[in-house]
Design goal:
The complex is a heterodimer of chains A (172) and B (816). By secondary structure, chain A is mainly alpha-helical. Chain A contains 7 helices and no strands. In chain B, strand 3, helix 12 and strand 4 form a beta-alpha-beta unit. The chains are: A mainly alpha (172), B alpha+beta (816).
Chain lengths: 172, 816
């Protein structure tokens, strides 16, 4: 059970995490509440790709000793709720902005969410990371990794879109 | 002689039997409670001590006795004493509510000994509540069936029908009323049932609101009041409190909308009935003395046949096409013609029905139901602005006044302003398209036909005021109505005055009579297919390519239509709604909506004019330099005219009885683009609009000038269509209009010319379409109708819509 929920975590803790996702989602969705028809294939594509990549990646990187262990349920809700839904929507709503701006935007929102998960579930925790002895070094670094979401997403959409795959829309 | 042999309907007989049954039931129950308490207690009731309880028995005996009495009276004559049944129902509802409250919240829940064990009070009350509920359901069902059958109601509920009857009794008020209130309500019920529409329920809501509103003031519902009390209540709460702005704004809005709708329903029911025509001095065209003379002068022309597919003609759930055009109005038709000439084949999908012109009649209500449907009930979200649109094959061209204006130069300049709207239209090519359209649809000056006689009065006033001199233009309108320029002098308008309900004589050259059948005649029915009665719900895409659309027939059956190219041409409101429903142009579609807002000025002359006896819009006055408005003389057959006729109670009745001494002019103001269409509200089709101060002031200036023109022409008095009723008999008094009318709640505003919503612009952040009519972000989706206009025209938009379509043809034809 500890592998699934994490030590001393209850379903209530997860419900609070989901509530935070929901509130973040409302904020993210605010400027563009509906996904434009031509972006819907992109949305599905990005959401699925990122959910699969992150869910497996988080576990593999833990196995490689680069990341701390994410309890399975935490990994699942984080990948589906935060990465798959929220960050994909954030990308949809803001992808026309400059890439450096997006990097900060994505990193910062991820930092908020990871910090919440850290406080509530005790995850995203390492005593030191990349030689920096600080409890938040790992959490911050992982948030910065999320800052690359727009860059990688843009590349994925361009790569597959221009080859006419998955019905993706590439803005001219 | 009174009719003493009026038979009860089967449903009323059933209600009577039910009442008799419950009369005996309640008498039995009464005895059951009463007798044990006075020691006549049979053995089988002895185990139930509560039946012996005097207090308990007293209450129950009274209740059962009352119900028995009401059943007895109701059964005696279910028509005359129907109120007894209603009383039972109301009391039963109260009993159920009280039972539920006691069941769940009562403090005292003691147990009672019965012969069968213990029984809590809570359980006993619950059982009694369930019983009361079941009995009440029976009463309500039998009551509703009996009422519907008695009045042969087709649309309204009995309560709404009663409200309408009660409303008609006080709204249509004057000497020698021709129809009884019940007849008026019946006419309306028949009308509402005769067409399908999603927004019809609003009339039900309005009537229900009117009926129940007095309860807020602890007064009986409207239909239960005596007529004088009812009128006093309506005057105070629906008229004075609104006019004097005494009620809170939200309540005022609802109350005003309800009474406006209620009044209009009554007027429709009364003034559309041919028995009333004589009394108001109206002669339908079919009975006019010079009808044959006019027909001899301008004989009827053979009409072309149009092939239109209905649901039954469509096999399977999926069809394919080359180009799909959503809509069949003026823009869609010209576009179809151009695309077919370029070698494409076209499928048009029209939400409205197809009505063969041979079915056009003089019956306004019948024609409104066939040609407008929901389009006649389209109101802005604050219920203060009506957006009337045709909904039929041929679109607005079937029901408009055929008035033609070229797109004004100053409007084109505004559209192309690189620092503003930046539509980047090729003006030379656009103007060539404009000239081509004028030739193609036969636009000509309507100066030798049967024009609206009220227009002459208007011109007379203009001349006296010196307004006809150049650079002003005061003249007969140009219109695409059959005439000498297209048929060698033997053709022309008959002046029946029925432009807005479809020209039964084929003189108005609508798309139904000209472009659409011409295409099919020349290129065959395979080149142009039209599906009617089918609403496009949404478009589907794979990335930036629209792959198909989903459409629904009135039966609910859905089809999927695949095509190479998709064109949305359903009009400013519907096109925006379709894009929004599809998730296209999110954040932009539906915005920048504008109108030619209009309001009429009525004038009463001492002599008979018969303004109805001629072309509905016959003359116009355009001021130069531009003052922001134009005038168009306008008059309607009685039903339409009654809905825009100023006045309440006997004032309205009096005005309608000088119908043949009246003339009317509409003031049109090209509004700013501050309106919006949204998928919201009760109908999921919400127009949000409040006129800007500038537009409102411009409109009032126009109305004052229109009134002055009529007074100059010898009118006894002039009347704008204000909520509070005002008559002005001199110019000085008329100037007060600006003080009397403060905002749009004080005056009736409407439009038949919505524009914008999906505007064209090079600037992607504000335009829904690019200058090639392609929707930003999509390879094969185009919009081409009045919704692409970057701002309002300020004149009738028909020619501009068609010009824009002709201009768009090369861009859309090239999309394969």
């Amino acid at each position: 059970m500890e592998d699934i929920l994490g030590a001393q975590n209850s379903i209530i803790d997860y419900l609070i995490v989901l509530l935070i996702y929901l509130l973040m989602f409302l904020l993210i969705r605010y400027p563009k509440p509906v996904v434009e028809l031509n972006f819907r294939s992109n949305f599905k594509f990005l959401a699925i790709v990122w959910i699969v990549l992150m869910f497996t990646g988080n576990y593999l990187f833990y196995k490689l000793g680069i990341m701390s262990f994410l309890p399975w349920l935490n990994n699942l809700v984080h990948c589906v709720g935060w990465i798959g839904l929220c960050l994909t929507w954030l990308y949809y709503a803001s992808n026309h902005r400059p890439m450096w701006e997006l990097f900060i935007h994505f990193s910062f929102t991820s930092f908020i969410v990871k910090m919440s998960e850290h406080q509530l579930l005790g995850t995203w925790s390492m005593d030191s990371f990349l030689g920096i002895d600080h409890p938040y070094a790992y959490l911050t670094a992982m948030s910065l990794v999320d800052g690359f979401y727009p860059l990688i997403s843009k590349w994925l959409l361009n790569y597959f879109g221009k080859r006419g795959k998955f019905g993706l829309y590439v803005e001219p | 002689m009174k009719n003493l042999s009026a038979e009860l309907t089967l449903q009323e007989v059933r209600l009577k039997i039910l009442l008799r049954f419950f009369f005996f039931f309640y008498i039995g129950a009464m005895l059951l409670y009463l007798l044990p308490a006075i020691t006549f207690i049979p053995d089988f009731l002895k185990p139930f001590p509560f039946i012996n309880d005097g207090a308990f028995a007293n209450n129950s005996t009274i209740k059962m006795g009352l119900f028995a009495a009401l059943c007895f009276i109701g059964a005696a004559d279910v028509r005359r004493y129907l109120v007894a049944v209603e009383a039972i129902i109301v009391v039963m509802v109260l009993a159920v509510v009280s039972g539920l409250l006691l069941t769940f919240f009562a403090n005292n829940n003691y147990e009672m000994e019965t012969g069968m064990g213990h029984l809590t009070i809570r359980k006993m009350v619950l059982m009694s509540t369930v019983f009361d509920t079941l009995v009440n359901i029976l009463f309500i069902a039998f009551y509703l069936q009996a009422q519907k059958a008695r009045y042969k109601l087709l649309f309204f509920s009995p309560m709404q029908f009663r409200t309408l009857t009660a409303l008609a009794e006080v709204v249509i008020e004057g000497e020698n009323e021709i129809l009884k209130p019940g007849e008026i309500a019946h006419n309306v019920d028949r009308y509402m049932a005769s067409f399908r529409g999603k927004t019809k329920f609003i009339t039900r809501l309005a009537l229900t609101g009117i009926e129940l509103y007095p309860l807020v003031f602890l007064k009986p519902p409207v239909s239960y009041m005596r007529a004088p009390d009812r009128k006093a209540f309506l005057m105070r709460h629906f008229y004075q409190n609104v006019a004097l702005k005494l009620a809170p704004p939200f309540i005022r809005m609802l109350v005003q909308a309800s009474i406006r709708m209620g009044k209009q329903l009554c007027f429709m029911g009364y003034y559309n009935d041919e028995r009333v025509f004589d009394s108001i001095g109206y002669i339908p065209f079919s009975k006019r003395a010079d009808k044959q003379e006019r027909l001899d002068k301008f004989p009827l022309r053979p009409r072309r046949q149009l092939s239109v597919l209905k649901e039954i003609d469509i096999n399977g759930d999926s069809i394919t096409a080359d180009v799909v055009i959503v809509g069949s109005g003026p823009g869609a038709s010209i576009l179809a013609k151009g695309l077919i000439e370029q070698g494409r084949t076209v499928l048009m999908i029209e939400r409205g029905d197809y009505t063969d012109p041979s079915q056009f009649s003089e019956d306004e209500i019948d024609m409104v139901s066939k040609l407008y449907a929901d389009g006649a009930l389209q109101l802005a979200s604050d219920f203060r602005f009506q957006v009337i649109q045709g909904s039929c094959v041929g679109g607005s061209s079937v029901v408009n006044n055929a008035v033609c204006f070229d797109t004004p130069d100053h409007v084109l300049d505004r559209w192309n302003d690189v620092k503003g709207l930046n539509a980047a239209i090729d003006i030379d090519r656009y103007k060539k398209s404009n000239e081509k359209i004028n030739r193609q649809i036969g636009v000509r000056k309507m100066d030798n036909d049967f024009l609206n006689p009220g227009g002459n009065k208007f011109l007379e006033g203009c001349e006296k005021m010196g307004l006809v001199q150049s650079p002003n233009v005061a003249a007969a309108v140009a219109a695409n109505i059959a005439g000498s320029t297209v048929s060698g002098g033997t053709d022309g308008c008959l002046g029946c005055g029925y432009c807005n309900i479809g020209c039964a004589f084929g003189k108005k050259l609508s798309m139904l009579d000209t472009v659409l059948p011409e295409i099919q005649e020349k290129y065959g029915t395979d080149a142009l297919k039209i599906i009617a009665g089918c609403e496009v719900l949404h478009l589907k895409s794979g990335g930036s390519n629209i792959r198909s659309l989903t459409a629904k027939f009135t039966s609910g059956r859905k089809i999927e239509v695949k095509a190479n190219t998709f064109v949305v041409s359903a009009g400013a409101v519907s096109s925006s709604i379709l894009l929004l429903n599809s998730g296209i142009a999110v954040g932009k579609a539906g915005k920048h909506l504008s109108f030619n807002i209009g309001s009429p000025m009525n004038a009463v002359f001492p002599q008979q004019i018969n303004a109805y006896d001629g072309l509905q819009i016959s003359h116009y006055l355009q001021m130069n330099p531009d003052r922001g408005y134009i005038f168009e003389t306008w008059f309607n057959p009685p039903m339409f005219q009654s809905t825009v006729m100023p006045g309440w109670w006997d004032d309205h009745f009096k005005n309608m009885h000088r119908y043949n001494r009246m003339a009317c002019t509409g003031v049109l103001v090209g509004s700013e683009s501050n309106a919006e269409v949204r998928v919201a509200g009760l109908t999921k089709r919400e127009v949000r609009y409040t006129p800007t101060k500038k537009d409102f002031d411009t409109l009032l200036d126009g109305l004052i000038l229109a009134g002055e023109i009529y007074l100059e022409a010898g009118a006894d008095l002039v009347m704008p269509n204000t909520f509070s009723y005002y008559e002005f008999n001199n110019k000085t008094a008329l100037k007060r209009l600006k003080d009397l009318v403060q905002d749009n709640s004080d005056i009736t505003l409407g439009t038949g010319h919505p524009q914008g919503g999906n505007i064209m612009s090079v600037t992607k952040s504000q335009g829904v379409i690019d200058p090639q009519f392609k929707v930003y972000g999509y390879n094969n989706l185009f919009v081409c109708d009045a919704s692409v206009f970057p701002s309002s025209l300020g004149v009738n938009p028909q020619v501009s819509v068609m010009t824009m379509a002709d201009y768009a043809v090369p861009f859309i034809a090239a999309n394969r």
